[in-house]
């Protein structure tokens, strides 16, 4: 549990300050709101050598935007003027970049511009999906509902990212250990062993000769290896950034064992989540599909949605073009077809989003367990080869001495 300092306004306008322990800033905001308070500031307190200081991180974290969305929804629903709500939220923002952005948004709104139009000037903070949803909320008069939906979606995205990242930590650690062990062996162990074998003057097995040759090359020409590695990495990045390279790279990702399935499920979860959010907020299906295609990180899924959008524009159902896309499982197009026929597309999308979210969660939770034997086998092969190459000459020497 973390400790947070807060200030909030009562319904009478009085300021109340205090401290709470909670899992996150969002939980603090929710707890204060249940007490009928309008949150003004929430700051995490962390101890450094006995003193307490606020934590500010570069960029605008998702958590900061989640709190902003929830607080703005609460203030708007309480009848607080939008300009006054933005002024309070700009004062309370902990992130310097976000504070600056909110002050600029406030100035634009006070100048007569709409909220979505004001946010549009800051694409690094508010993407097209957020902008279109806010515009829909302004047009329909349901701004409060839109902000609550956005807060839920951003919170879900944050949880989603943390889940996948934490699942990849163990394999990354094992990979680093393998590289470190090999580097230490090549730079320190093999040279001393090679000197010892040279003194004996015995015939060295081929495996040992290969290992010694690699070790000597690494020690003498390590800078060449660094240049080759850096050039290769830069060249690969340049190629991946090209349209053709990105297609090849993303296709390769989808074909990877284990990870390909995870990436596919992530894309399907993102597709159903975002499409449900947009349609349920009142956006037309064509606009929603265009925005969904922009939000998908894999180009093959994004292209499939773009193709489907063009077909829908010509009068086709959404299910038909998706059924022809090999990247989309047949169950997705079938469920969407049922939703279109029954007029319950929103409900179907919501159910599918929940299903794929649970699938991603399950795969992420089991990823370390699945990869552990694979990583151990790789480590065993590497260490085993080195061990055989190092100790094989000793057995040869012992045989000759007998």
Structural account:
With 402 residues, this protein is an alpha+beta fold. It folds into 2 domains: 2-126, Receptor-associated Protein (Up-down Bundle), CATH 1.20.81.30; 163-402, Type II secretion system (T2SS), domain F (Receptor-associated Protein). The protein contains 16 helices and 4 strands. A 4-stranded antiparallel beta sheet has the order 2-1-3-4. Helix 15 (330-342) runs antiparallel to helix 16. The longest helix is centred in the middle third of the chain and has 58 residues, at 143-200. It is globular and about 90 Å long. The N and C termini lie far apart (67 Å).
List keywords for this structure.
about 400 residues, alpha+beta, Receptor-associated Protein, 2 domains, four-stranded antiparallel β-sheet
Rounded to the nearest angstrom, the distance between the terminal CA atoms is: 67 Å
**In one word, what is the shape?**
globular
Helix content: over 70%
Total of DSSP H or I helical runs spanning 4+ residues: 16
Helix/strand class = alpha+beta
Mean pLDDT: 82
H/E order of the elements?
Answer: EEHEEHHHHHHHHHHHHHHH
Strand content: 5-15%
CATH topology of the largest domain: Receptor-associated Protein
Brief sketch in words of this structure:
By secondary structure, this protein is α+β, with helices and mostly antiparallel strands.
Write the SSE topology:
Layout: E1 2-9, E2 15-22, H1 25-34, E3 38-48, E4 51-54, H2 62-77, H3 82-92, H4 96-110, H5 115-119, H6 128-140, H7 143-200, H8 206-220, H9 222-241, H10 243-255, H11 259-280, H12 285-295, H13 299-313, H14 319-323, H15 330-342, H16 345-401
Antiparallel strand pairs: 1-2, 1-3, 3-4
Helix pairs in contact: 1-2, 2-3, 2-7, 3-4, 6-7, 7-8, 7-16, 8-16, 9-10, 10-11, 11-12, 11-16, 12-13, 15-16
